[in-house]
Amino acid sequence: MRKTAFLLYCCLPLGLMAQQKGESLVPYVKPIIGTQKMGHTFPGATVPFGSVQLSPDTDTIPYEMNGHYNGDVYKYCAGYQYDDKTIVGFSHTHFSGTGHSDLGDFLIMPTTGALQLNPGTADNPASGFRSAYSHASEVAEADYYKVKLDDNNITAELTATTRVGFHQYTFPKADDAHIILDLMSGIYNYPDKNVWTVVRVVNDTLVTGYRQTNGWARTRTVYFAMTFSKPFKSYGSANYSKREVYHGFWGKFDQRNNFPDMAGTQLRAHFDFATNDGEKIKIKFALSPVSQEGALNNLRTETPGWDFDQVKAEGQALWEKELRKITIASNSVEEKQNFYTAMYHAFINPTVYMDVDGRYKGLDQEIHKADGFTNYTTFSLWDTYRALHPFFNLIQPKRNADMVQSMLAHYDQSVLHMLPVWSHYANDNWCMSGYHAVAVLADAVVKGNTPFDANRALDAAIATSNHRNYEGIGDYIDHGYIAAERNGVSVSTTLEYAYDDWAIAQMAKKLGRNDVYETYMKRSRNYKNVWDASIGYMRPRMADGSFRKDFDLLKTDGQGFIEGNTWNFSLYVPHDPAGLIEMMGGKKRFTQHLDSLFTMHLPDKFFEETEDITRDGIIGNYVHGNEPSHHVAYLYNWAGYPWKTQERIRMILKKMYAPRPDGLGGNDDCGQMSAWYIFSTLGFYPVAPGSDQYSLGSPAVDGAVLTLENGNTFTVEVKNQSDKNVYVQKVLLNGKPLDRLYITHEEIMQGGTITFVMSSKHA
Predict the structure, then answer these.
(1) By CB neighbour count within 10 A (0-12 exposed, 13-18 middle, 19+ buried), where does 365 fall?
(2) Domain co-membership, 305 together with 387
(3) How many other C-beta atoms can be found within 10 angstroms of the C-beta atom of residue 459?
């Protein structure tokens, strides 16, 4: 089975077309990459930045068991785990690559035979409506997913538009075929997550409704419109809600059978058909953040007909357009699969959050209309400020500017008057540390991508950074660090605030607001306040100014850090590498520290309490599977050893990325891991977003052409590139020697050619 699946996903014959001019890039996208182990990606159908992510869910693991967190739920952040043997159904909303979860709305499952309205169990799928499946019958492409549900002999096919999931189910002959609509199911689910659910059967082909949940987003309402290609002959529902204290006089009706007005917290509905052998029943399922009417308008606008293949072709054409923004030259099929799947994963999130008429529900629970921009949600900013948003400023500047405007709308609608931290569906779930929206705003402003009021953006950043009652900001402002007694991740949060403050300073400098620049440059040096010179590492500091006595250099949990130990976080000063090197004792000692990070052994006990990291995501003590170290390999450039940057980057690319289901060394985190791969493969990386510089590394392809939105092209030319020739002998920019270890954003945007001459020996 594994061999069959491997051949299916790798598509080796594509290598014969590798250098053909104008070849299609969509076949290189393998959505199955990252679906095994800790990648937390999903294999289903979505278009670029689409509101709908229609994908299979392979189990119904609850968030809570016996009053405690159920650790097994973590594997299902994206709803799908490659090693599972059954599929529960196909739901319409999923996060890509996250380390926490929500969503999984509106699960649909086709069945035949006696009606079963419970999902059953993985070890006994016949006890419910789930079905066994095989990877041998599974096809995962950009905006297309197909699988055979073996227990019912039904072939399921999925595609999507921005706001509509399109299902096509090929049935056997059956008098008792069913489409189950499960409104209880969800990701990171628990009994009280569903606040209320409504289903209205408008006629024998149209159903509308909504679902309100209290999960990671605590006030989230999603509306839907569902239409069938064939009238159903009967329908019904079951309400699994706990007995309510008051439920009115609805008992006058038979609410289980053919009753069109369903409501409750725990509902499952079914729609019944008679089918001929090979008959296809199609479903179009539209979402809206505003209303049932909005969902129906989205459905009729985006999918007016019933041609499944046409919708699939249009969706894949959208992907082809986005993928062609970078074309690479490589003789390796695997390299192309890695690269274009990384592009695919980078262009899933953030997601469009508005109806086709521009309306959306804001944080204030009011209806707004996006004026002159596309409104987005799903901002995993602790991850994505590092490389994903800088990548958008380069390749998707219009979208990134719209994302900034979406963040400013979030700020305006927030009663707290803060920019987003980790937001989705008109909520902030406040996950992770720092206030990294300011880095995204700063990166856009510094790079001149500002079709918005840049001074208003700076004011919003300043207000967010001075919100004293949010995660130690008051302490940070007053004392220059967060006291260990008051915050469990005091050191990493202090370091992140210092970087964010530097980003604000760069934005202020660009806008000529020198008073703000001076204030925030001073704040940006607060990283020095958690440096313990006696041991040479960042360390938790107490309110009285002393450093905490009990401290483990290799441990993460309980040591003042989040998703990284002090070995890694002591290098988290991306805005001042020169100052960090001096503080650590100079270039020689600093380089020794970096060398040791990559070559030492980190015993299992030091990451076993961190659920999202396994040995697969670690090189020595360098944890690539979590983001705080993503800039680290490039720091050799500041220490005078660029060849070590080049060597390490090529090693990380080989070890952490592969065109297999388990091919990601950690959570893709809404595209951050993929953006790191794209930049590093091209040969440069944004070490400090908010700067206009990209640090040079070692390109891993034979060349690339970046087609920029301003009409220019930027070419990466690589001479003598190979797995052995990882060292850069010299660099030319437009034919002239480049005597520095960075390239600027403006140099790229002007178009031209950067030439890397590679060698097997370092300088």
Answers:
(1) exposed
(2) no
(3) 15
- Tell me the C-alpha distance between 225 and 206, whole Å: 7
- One-letter amino acid of 124: N
Q: Do 395 and 277 fall within a single domain?
A: no
d(CA 217, CA 211): 13
∠ CA(57), CA(239), CA(108), 5° rounding?
A: 25
The secondary structure element, H or E, covering residue 732 is strand 727-733
Least confident of 8-17, 163-172, 200-209: 8-17
Identify the CA nearest to 516 among candidates 532, 530, 501, 528. 501
Split into its structural domains, the chain has a count of 2
Residue 67 has a pLDDT of: 87
Same domain, 223 and 111: yes
Domain range for residue 205? 26-314
End-to-end CA distance of the chain: 47
Kindly state whether residues 260 and 407 are assigned to the same domain.
no
Q: What percent of the chain has pLDDT over 90?
A: 92
List the structure tokens of 124: 């006994």
Enter the tokens of residue 331.
């003789």
Instruction: Name the DSSP letter for residue 325.
Output: T
Residue 463 CB-density burial (10 A; 0-12 exposed, 13-18 middle, 19+ buried): middle
Answer yes or no: is 496 within a domain. Answer: yes
Q: Would you state the structure tokens that stand for residue 172, as one six-digit string? A: 């056997």
Rounded CA separation 338/150 (Å): 31
Beta-bridge partners for 159: 166
Read off the pLDDT of residues 665-699 as tens digits, 9 standing for 90 and up: 999 999 999 999 999 999 999 999 999 999 999 99
The answer to whether residue 715 sits within a structural domain is no
Spatial distance between the Cα atoms of 508 and 394, rounded to a whole number of angstroms: 21
Beta strand residue intervals within 229-323, DSSP E: 234-239, 261-264, 267-275, 280-288
In this predicted structure, what is the pLDDT of residue 21? Answer: 60
Question: Other CB atoms closer than 10 Å to residue 64's CB: what's the count?
Answer: 15
Distance between CA 646 and CA 634 in Å, rounded? 8
CA distance 206 to 209: 10
Rounded distance, CA 502 to CA 523, Å? Answer: 7
Same domain, residue pair 446 and 529:
yes
Which of 527, 551, 575 is a domain's end point?
A: 551
> Using CA atoms, how far apart are residues 46 and 54, in angstroms rounded to an integer?
6
Q: What is the pTM of this model?
A: 0.96
* CB 202 within 8 Å of CB 208: yes
CB 33 within 8 A of CB 64: no
- Domain end position, chosen among 525, 551, 577: 551
**Which residue has better confidence, 250 or 78?**
78
310 and 382 together in one domain: no
**Segments in 549-657 forming alpha helices (H):** 566-569, 577-583, 587-599, 636-639, 642-656
The pLDDT tens digits of the residues spanning 151-194 come to: 999 999 999 999 999 999 999 999 999 999 999 999 999 989 99
Can the peptide bond before residue 13 be classed as cis, meaning omega within 30 degrees of 0? Answer: no
Rounded to a whole number of angstroms, the CA Rg of the chain reads: 26
Cα distances from 729 to residues 457, 643, 687, in angstroms, run 42, 9, 22
Do 285 and 351 contact (CB within 8 A), yes or no?
Answer: no
Instruction: Report the CATH number at residue 531.
Output: 1.20.1050.60
